[in-house]
Amino acid sequence: MKIVINKDHGGFGLSDKAFERYLTENGTTFRKVPNHYGFYFYTEEYDSLGDKAEMLWDMDITRNDPVLVRIVEEMGEDAFGRYAQLKVIEIPENVDWEIGEYDGMEWVAEKHRRWS
After folding, report:
1. Can you tell me the distance from the alpha carbon of 10 to that of 20, in angstroms, rounded to the nearest whole number?
2. pTM here?
């Protein structure tokens, strides 16, 4: 199984170009709103009161999503968000995994039981 992680301090994130490509390839209807660093991405739907649409976040993407993995592999550094250095790693299919992180730098670990 392939998983995308961030290998630098700062945290996971996609470039605007990569996130737009991800949304498009998944058939998500969205609109872009410029900000100081690039764009915010919103759903096209408005609620019954006409309130602002819901914001879309790259951090909500499941890290083993095949579309995400393919985009990061194909785009390389062009897929990296502002503070990210993305890497695709591969683990065995039968592993129950989770992403750990320290100061934005991530790793994949096998899940274990915990009590407190």
Report:
1. 21
2. 0.89
